[in-house]
Amino acid sequence: MKYAVLDFETTGNQSSDEIIQVGLAIIDDDLTVSHVYSSFVNPGVSIPPFITGLTGITDELVKDAPDLDVVMMEMVPLLNDVVLVGHNVAFDFNFLQSSLDRTGYLPFTGRILDTMDFLKIIFPSLTSYQLSQVSSEFEVQHDRPHQADSDALATALIFIKCLEEIEGLPLLTLQRLSDLFAGEDSDLGWFFDAMLQEKEQQVDPNPKGHTYYRQFALQVDDWTEMIPARYGDDTNPLGNVTFQQFMDGVRDRLRAKLPNYEEREAQNLMLDEVMQAFQEDKHLLIEAGTGTGKSLGYLLPAIYHSVKQDDKVMVSTHTINLQEQLRERDIPLLTEVVPFPFRAAIFKGRQHYLCLRKFEHKINRKDFATPKEEVMIAAQMIVWLTQTETGDDEELNMGNRGGDFWETVASESDSCLGRSCPWFRKCFYHRAKHEAGIADVVITNHSKLFTDIQAGHQLLPSYERLVIDEAHHLEDVAGKHLGLQLKYFTVVHTLTRLFKDSKTGQLPSLRSALQNTKSEKSSEWCSIIDGLYRSLLDVKESWDKLSEMLFVLMPDRSDAAPGDPGQFVLRLLPNRKPKEWDAIEALENQIYVILSDVLRKGERMLSEIREEPDDYGSEGLMTDISGLFKDIANERDGLRSFIKLDDEDTVYWIEGNGNYRSRSLQIFAVPIDVSAQLKSYFFDKKKSVVMTSATLSVDKSFQYMIEQLGLQEAASEDRLVTSVLPSPFNYRDQALLVIPRDFPSVKGSVGDDHFVNTLVQSLADTATVTQGRMLVLFTSYRMLRQVYDPLKELLSQRGITVIGQGMDSGNRSKLTRRFQGQSASVLLGTSSFWEGVDIPGEALTSLAIVRLPFQPPNHPLIEAKSERLQKEKKNPFMKLSVPQAVIRFKQGFGRLVRSSQDRGIVVVYDTRILESYYGKYFLYSLPGPKMEHMPLEQMVPRISEWLVAEEQQGSSLSD
């Protein structure tokens, strides 16, 4: 086969736009690029500035270029007998067809392949399928992104890499792929068919290194063969080794491995404090700022303790990101520097693991809700099975529709066949659980800790010592898990998975299995199922109506601009039910009664079918239905407890979004105070709990955290140690905090014109001096939107890009990557950007904090906590609002200096930090940057003076 890889640069993406450059790379059948054709094209119109900015192609460059006729005459002969390939090929193909038509040639009728499809299928774990990102990942030279010849060549080299990878796939995998695409009348089907025929002629079409089972090729073997790290070794490697001796050995190895390794005082203190807490059975609150190296600060004592005492240590993180970082960065490093074998297992929530039985069922039946997208995801996963050792969905880049697909194949306790499942020994969830059982250290997350408590400690292996990283989130996660959170779509998903229409859903699948059997009772069961269909449709209708009734209760937002959809929130009080509540209760009762009837009939029918001698091969299906019945029963009970509104210690509220109305409805019932539960689950039961984070203290005191987490008793009994570690950075030299003291103030979450104009002008001037490289943190999305357009306009004239969360497409990590990739840019972010964003080095020079990050006082949970404090004669503002805001403020500040080389400026535009009695708590809680306040007009000159002094100091140090 001969391939032609095509790329056009154009004046826009409409079919009426003109081509300005052509790139065509020819790949011969020996998989080498034999020829690259490229030419500028004179479009006969001027090139829009946006396109010039993107491609670097100017009117000057194309003015003497040939016109389209000449270029097509040279190009058409190269397109004879080729398969056309492109990255997002539909775009280039449309331009090709219209150019052939305009210049009098016949349309292209050959086969067309898209490298995007190949990358998704063959490299399912790539974080991005953008050409420039993939090129750097594969180390393919791509000097001039968005120029046609460079793009075409890079695409050709990437396509060759895909073809080589496909050659190495096992025959079974190719058979599966060919079968998947067979029904699709697509060129992908033709391609995999051809590859399959080629593979069938090879001597050994199923290469070693894979396990072959039930017509799938897997990377993993049976997990039952996995053994503990020091299996068969009777002597304890730490028998008579002190922690100090152990650490000396580790440090020697670290020095040998990392040439610029330097000991950090803060890390050494942390190692000793964590070790001491473990040895003395105490709890520890330890604040460790950025740069401490806190993951090693708790992992090394955890490994030492668990191996020496044969006593498993549990580590919990808040985010999956941190769990992944420990898996990919810290554990591999420790494996090399700890002088004996140990096992650290990552154990996540069950829904993160693929259920192979469900996946096999889905593929064999081609049970796809949206065939075009889901066939692609299925193909990705078939290839992924030849690569993954964990079956963890975090490894997959499934695109937007992936979530719905994953839900249907994820592992669940209610639909698990356990030992009677044909896939049991290969099962990813049981592998992870088994590995956690034999590991020395288990790394899980806060959510799983609480799910384990709710499941009566059946999920995690037992443990006496626990390290909680990102501990400032523990209370929040506890509230979510110990309370109720139910979304409109949670219920809808369960209903539609049981029955969507007579062909789709688990009940219709069971019905068609029953129809094909000889049992006398099968027709009776079929008519029971038909009855269940009607009931489920009634429930869906009532649930829609109930959601609408609840949504309508929410008041219009007073601070919303006209036509602004916004988030709605309404708190519901147990003793003051809205007047519509009777009608809502009646409707909920109707749902409760119908569902109870469905569950009774459905469960009885399932147990009758199970008693039949012939199991119709549908044991898995019945387990799935049984699992969905359990889900719907939990949702029914959750809804009932919410509608009752009868617990004074619970705060009830509903949320929704103006765009999606009742479909966005979420209902919450959360305990007002979780400290008593945290105390009984953790601090009373466990020998030692170590809690760490960069932000636990407020003005050097831990009192707020001690009260929130229920540690008062431990503190009074001398079972609690607290410690603030010294910062490893020299903040006085590395950071300057500036406050413009005459800056206009603002009331509420939205600024007036004077405030917004002053802010936009000041941000633009500051960003100009710092050459972009600026992160601006807002507390309200409304204000971010007010600033985005005018700032973008001002800075575009100065060559600085503005990227806005929610304004530009992409999630947090995509926006952060874009910001890091463009040297002169300003990133505007709200809540999720205040923490967990890591932008070390040159990419970030200045941080602007627009408002102090107080939570909106009218949020139901904050409101309920405040009322409770008032009853106890305490000041809710000082006891709750200020400490929460200070912790958030410290998190935001922590984005700036991420290493001992980083330098930067923080501008705080909120003058309350100077004028109010509580402002000092914010300033005193910071790790000691240089602080100055001045009139606004002096701010930019002061910043540029500081930057110049820093540069001179930096260059004299490096001389």
UniProtKB/TrEMBL annotation:
Source organism phylogeny:
Bacteria, Bacillati, Bacillota, Bacilli, Bacillales
For the Helicase ATP-binding domain, which residue ranges apply? 253-526
Q: Does the keyword Nucleotide-binding apply?
A: yes
Name of this protein = 3'-5' exonuclease DinG
Q: Record's SUPFAM superfamilies?
A: P-loop containing nucleoside triphosphate hydrolases (SSF52540), Ribonuclease H-like (SSF53098)
Cite a single GO BP annotation.
DNA replication
Does the record carry Ribonucleoprotein as a key word?
Answer: no
**Sorted alphabetically, which keywords does the UniProt record give?**
ATP-binding, Exonuclease, Helicase, Hydrolase, Nuclease, Nucleotide-binding
TM regions (residue ranges): none
Q: Where does ATP bind?
A: A288, G289, T290, G291, T292, G293, K294, S295
Any one GO MF term held by the record is: 3'-5' exonuclease activity
Catalytic class of the enzyme: hydrolase
Enzyme nomenclature, EC number: 3.1.-.-
Q: Tell me which residues make up the Helicase C-terminal domain.
A: 762-937
